[in-house]
Each structure stands twice: as C-alpha cells, then as structure tokens.
Design goal:
The complex is a heterodimer of chains A (541) and B (178). Chain A is built from 11 helices and 20 strands. In chain A, 58% of the residues are buried. With 541 residues, chain A is of the alpha/beta class. The two termini of chain A are 32 Å apart. Chain B is mainly alpha-helical and 178 residues long. In chain B, helix 1 packs parallel to helix 3, helix 2 packs across helix 6 and helix 4 packs across helix 6. Classes of the chains: A alpha/beta (541), B mainly alpha (178). At the A-B interface, helix 2, helix 5, helix 8 and helix 9 of A face helix 6 and helix 7 of B.
Chain lengths: 541, 178
C-alpha cells in the first residue's frame, strides 16, 4: 500500500512533478538533501502507454481523456472574452504536462529577455544568466538539434543528440522558401534521434501529442525516477490544499489531501511551487490567511495577473503531388526569421515577402508534417466502410501541406487566473477561473503570420489555401505570466532568484514567472529556470 | 493485398497488446472463455469475422486469419474489451433473431450483415463503450476492426501511407522518396 503520510524531515518540499518540479527535485536530491514531491495526480504505469495511444487515435475519447484529465478534480471556469480549454492544456500526474506535450525545445532569444511590458516591467535576468542552464537543460532532456538556425541566440556546445532529418515535405517548403528569401532551419526536439539516457530512439508511432508509447519523447517522469533514485520521495494523488506560514512569514507547512480523505501536513525548510501557470497562482490564492489577506506572496497584487499563451496561426492547402504527411508526429523544420523582427521584408531568388510597418508580436513559423487527414483517424470517424471507405481515404490522403505558427501575447492585467468561489473541486476548493482575451497587437500579428504563410503556400503552388486567423485562433497551451519575475516587489511576485519577494523560503519554478511570452515553446526555458531555482534553493539550505 | 499474421501482430502492438511473437497468437492457443451467460469467445470471433466481411475493403484477403489472430489475443488480454464485446454481440444476436431468420449475426451472408448494420444506424453512430447498441457495435466491432486494419502497414498501404498513426514503422517514411 502506498505510504502517503508526510516525511518526518524534509529539506525541500516541491509541489508538482512536471519538468520543473522533477528537475528541482533531482538536483536537490543529488546534492544529498531530503526532498519530498507532492503531486496532485496519479503515477501512470508505463505499461498503459500503448492503450493510451489507442485512446488518442480512436474517436470515443478526447485528448483530455488520454491522461485521465477532467471531472470534479479538474473543474474550472473560463469567463474571459475567449474560451480557454484548460483541461486540454494540462496533465495532472507524475510527469505533468510533458506527458502530452509536443516536445519542441528552443532557447528563448536574447531579445525575449530585453522586452518591456506595456506597464514597464522587464525581465530581471538576461540570456547570459540563463545560458549555462539552457545547456544543462538540453543535456537533461536529451535534445536532438543542429546549429543551423541563424536567428537563434549564441551557443557554444553542440546539442546532445544529432538532429532529425528534414521530412520530405520540408524539402518542398524549402524550395519555395528559398525563392521568397524565407530561411528555414531545423527544430530542436526533446525526442531521441538515437538511444539516449536509457531510452530508445523514436520509432515513429506518430502520436507524439498526446502520447509517446515508446518513451523516445522526453517527459518529466524521467527525472522523477532519477530523483527517486537519489533518495527523493514522490507522493502521488496528494493535491496541496494550501500553504501555511509561521509567525515569521515563512512557509511552514504544505497541507495536502490523500485519496483516503485524510489531510496531512508536510513541513520543510524550503518550498518550491512547480505546478504550472494556472495551479501555481491558484494555490497562492488558496493560501490566503490573516497574514496574507490577498493570497500568499501577493502583496503586489500580481498573482494570477498577466496570464499569457501563444496564439496559433495556420494555413494549409493541397498540392498536385504526394506530400507524405502523418508518418511521424513531430515537426522537423521551422523559421525564426520573423521572430525578432516580425515585420521584416524578404527577397529571394524569385520573389519576396513584403514588409509590414505595424506594431507586431514575435512570430515563429512551423512547417507541418501532419497536415491534412490521418487515414486511421478518418476511418474511425467516417460514415462509410468497405470499398467506399477505402476510396474516400485514398482520395483524401496524400497531397496536403500546412504551416503552423505561434504568435506571442502582450501581458495585460485583465488576462488572469482567479478563484471562482461559485464552483468547487473534489476537495471543496474554489476552482480556477481563466480569463483570456486577444488584444489588437496579437490579432495583427496573427494576420501577419497568415500573410507570410499564404505567400509560401502560394509559391509552392498550393490550391484551396485556407487559414486559421485571429477569429479562429486558439491557445498553444503554454501557460505563462501569472507570478511574474521582477526587481520591484510592488509589481512582481518573484525576484531574479525565483524566490517570492514576500516569503523568504518560497520559490517558484514555472512558466508562471515569465515576464513576456515570446513566441517559442517554453518548456526548455522552464527547465533552465528550474535548474537555476534549484541552485538558489540549495544556497539557502 | 493479403493480410498476414504479422499484420495481426502489428495491430495488437498498436493496440497496446504486446505479444512475444507470432507463436503466441491465437492459432496456437484456445480462445478464452468469455462468460456463461452470453456468446463465448469463438462466437465473438465469428461475429467479428462477419463484420470484417462488411467493413474491410475487397482488396484485402485472408481476413479470417487476420481477425482471428488479432481479436483472440485482444479478447484474452483486455477484460473490459472482452466484456463489452460479449454484451454487444449478445444484443446484436438478439436483434438478428427478431429481424431475420437467423439466430446469430455471425451466420448472416455479407449482404444481410451489412443491411443489419445500416438498419441499426451503425455507419453514422458515434462510438460508445456503453449505451445504445448502434454505438457499441460501432465501438467494439466496427471501429475495433477498422483500427486493426488501418493502423497496420498493410492497411496503410491500401490508402497510401506506409507508416500510419499507431504503427511504429520508423521515421524513414517521412523522407524524400528514393
């Protein structure tokens, strides 16, 4: 029977076992500290992965069902101008949301750390501060990549693993992009291109998101196991209800619940919150007390505010030739050319992309390897069978091309996570209310991304080109900004050491500390910040 | 295009049923007993074979062996699936007994078997693990067979994709063709 009682002695209590929590726990445990990780969700058996993959392909289940998300435990509200599908955007369990992530891992650009928000906030660290941690994070996650991106920030060390080869459709895109002066380059992937760290190379199941049956795609259960091997203790199905402080303003106890209905109290010298961009502010708000009437670590009023995501922009069409889509479930080529300067013009060998003088957010462009229908998914949801079905599948599959893209959001205080006291979870706690909307700059940037994408597809000779623009966009499930970093305690929640301004023994390792969103997948930066957090916590122990 | 026992093995792997090798497949073992109060495993396999005659394209051959190899192991390894399939076949047989001269769906000729699926609205039904008979037939019988076929390399090749989603066929298929 699983022992979920508190540890008698803990140097550090980490809340959450996603990539941030797992890396913090592993680093501290490796240094000999007693570490307890409290994870709200269950520990998933590796033997269940193929069955979960079948759930991903068969239409009876939605993506949240693949990792058992939903129900009273995961109740939430979405009351902003845009609906936010929170339960499609996270996994609760050992490994956290990396269990269903896509696995794209790039370093944020130097410019990302130099951006200023509309209210004058800036990152208190720069790329150089994080650069060694990026290298460590790439080694930890096992990143396959190449140094062929002329827009990427400087790096000295090679990637731990060789890059994945460009796909066939990448080559079709590359030819058209060259004619337009659009630069293409490889994607760093936290996915084994060859055996690494005891895990196999990718075998092409094609269902990376939401599940990798082979384990070639990194997920944080890897570092949970490593942490446990170093002596850390991981308690699953133990949602933290609140943090309690002592008279000196330090966190003394994490109060957590267990499946038997009991509540337990875990004490520790240091506490690290690593439960994502939504549950982290929620837990701080749930930890409201007479000493912290607006929530823990919230003297600035910034907890929960400045919620950001990356907005999706896309375009697809069909060619008069084979494009070989849906063989693998990940992207091998992208473009950062419009990231630092989204309005820039290009001039190629036989065409151009015109300049835009609009005020724009960063844009990252992707060249998809899974455009158009997946035959097996289509077969399972169609209304035909036999020869009719085969004919339909044959006609529908094979000639699609598609581009995706991420557009950064401006941090705004009205986009926020609050507590909805009208609805409670399975423990009677108010659920998170995600209030999300698009501003004009983000909308313009999505339109700019569509303009470039359409130009590329047209150059390829694609027909029936359609776009996912500002009216149809959705989030990329990258929760950021709800406990922002900063030097000013009146405007931010954590300092450059990732420690909360208000509470001396409480740190936060999460994308919730991001000051600006950029437009790059955030997990490598989350991992780098987690390793930095661990170093600071270690110094305080 | 001939479906092989290797295809069945691959389909089982795609469904999360790891088997040690071809020798472990059902032809070498008795099918599992299912329940005392409904169709046994052999009857379920017969029903699945009849459904496959309807939903599989005419271009595939050796359907009987493929279905038996795939489904027997699946029934053996997945108790929840086995129970759902048993109850669904039982209800389908009851429907057939009322609406045809036959007692079992498995005994129908292909044309009648297809007509029954259409009369039940299985083609347009949403798959369900529990619920209406049409939804359950779609889930346990029709979609299970379609998943087994189109997530296999042979089924993929039928429609132009050598490494369909769900099949660990490697990464080389996304490269430029030789």
């Amino acid at each position: 029977m699983t022992d979920r009682t508190p540890s008698e002695r803990a140097d550090a209590c980490v809340v959450g076992s996603g990539p941030a929590g797992a890396l913090v726990a592993h680093r501290l445990a490796s240094d000999g500290y007693d570490v307890v990780v409290l994870e709200a969700g269950p520990r998933f058996s590796r033997d269940s992965r193929e069955e979960r993959m079948e759930r991903a392909v068969r239409p009876v289940d939605g993506d949240p069902d693949v990792w058992d998300v939903g129900g009273e435990r995961d109740a939430y509200r979405s009351t902003g101008r845009r609906f936010y599908p929170l339960n499609a955007a996270r996994v609760k369990g050992v490994g956290g949301t990396t269990l269903h992530w896509q696995g794209m891992v790039m370093r944020y650009h130097e410019a990302d750390f130099e951006r200023t928000t509309p209210d004058g906030a800036t990152w208190p660290i720069d790329y150089a501060d994080l650069r060694p941690y990026y290298a460590e994070a790439e080694a930890a996650l096992g990143v396959a990549g190449a140094s062929d991106n002329p827009f990427a920030p400087p790096r000295e060390e090679p990637y731990p693993l060789p890059p994945f080869e460009p796909s066939y459709s990448d080559s079709l895109f590359a030819e058209a992009c060259e004619r337009l002066g659009v630069v293409t380059h490889s994607v760093p992937n936290a996915r084994n291109s060859e055996g690494y760290d005891g895990r196999s190379a990718c075998v092409g199941y094609g269902t990376c998101q939401p599940v990798c049956p082979s384990g070639a795609k990194y997920d944080a259960s890897v570092h949970v196991r490593k942490a446990e091997n170093e002596g850390a203790r991981v308690v699953d199905r133990a949602p933290v209800q609140r943090l309690e402080t002592d008279g000196d303003g330090r966190v003394e106890t994490a109060v957590y619940a267990t499946p038997d209905g009991a509540e337990h109290r875990q004490t520790a010298r240091q506490f690290v919150l690593a439960c994502g961009g939504v549950e982290t502010p929620r837990l701080l708000l749930l930890s409201q007390s007479s000493d912290h009437p607006d929530g823990l670590a919230n003297s600035s009023g910034a907890v929960g505010r400045y919620f950001m995501d990356h907005c999706y922009a896309g375009a697809d069409g069909r060619l008069d030739e084979e494009t070989r889509q849906n063989h693998v479930g990940f992207i091998t080529t992208e473009c950062h050319q419009f990231y630092d300067d989204p309005g820039r013009a290009t001039q190629g060998t036989d065409g151009s992309v015109p300049r835009s003088d609009a005020d724009l957010s960063p844009i990252k462009l992707e060249f998809l390897n899974y455009a158009g229908p997946s035959p097996v998914e289509m077969a399972l949801s169609g209304e035909e069978w036999g020869d009719d079905l085969r004919d339909t599948l044959e006609a529908a599959y094979g000639d699609h091309v598609g581009m995706g893209g991420l557009v950064g959001q401006t941090p705004r205080p009205e986009n926020r996570v609050t507590l909805d006291t009208s609805t409670t979870d399975d423990h009677g706690n108010p659920v998170p209310d995600v209030q999300w909307s698009l501003d004009a700059r983000t909308r313009r940037s999505i339109e700019r991304a569509n303009e470039i994408q359409t130009r590329v597809l047209t150059e390829m000779g694609a027909r029936a080109v359609s776009t996912v623009g500002p009216d149809e966009t959705g989030p990329a499930y990258h929760h950021m900004g709800t406990t922002r970093m900063g030097e000013d305690p009146e405007k931010s929640v954590v300092d450059a050491r990732l420690r909360t301004h208000d509470v001396a023994n409480l740190s936060i390792a999460s994308s919730s500390v991001f000051v600006t969103s950029g437009a790059l997948n955030p997990t490598l930066t989350i991992a780098a910040l987690a390793l930095k957090t661990a170093d600071h916590v270690r110094a305080d122990l | 295009m001939e479906l092989s026992r290797r295809d069945a093995l691959v389909a089982l792997a795609s469904a999360g049923i790891a088997v040690g090798g071809i020798a472990t497949l059902s032809a070498d073992r008795d099918p599992p007993a299912v329940a005392d109060d409904g169709p046994d495993a052999e009857a379920i396999l017969s029903t699945l074979t009849t459904v496959a005659g309807v939903v599989y394209p005419s271009a595939v051959a050796n359907v009987d062996t493929f279905v038996e190899s795939y489904a027997a192991e699946r029934l053996r390894r997945r108790p929840a699936y086995r129970e759902g399939a048993r109850a669904t076949v039982s209800d389908l047989d009851d429907y057939v007994a009322v609406h045809t001269d036959s007692e079992r769906y498995a005994d129908l000729d292909t044309a009648t078997a297809e007509a029954i699926l259409h009369r039940l609205g299985v083609d347009s039904a949403a798959p369900e693990r529990a619920g209406s008979i049409s939804g359950r037939v779609r889930y346990y019988l029709v979609n299970d067979l379609l998943f087994a076929l189109y997530a296999s390399p042979t089924g993929g090749e039928l429609v132009g994709i050598e490494n369909p989603q769900g099949h660990p066929g490697g990464r080389t298929h996304s490269r430029r063709p030789e």
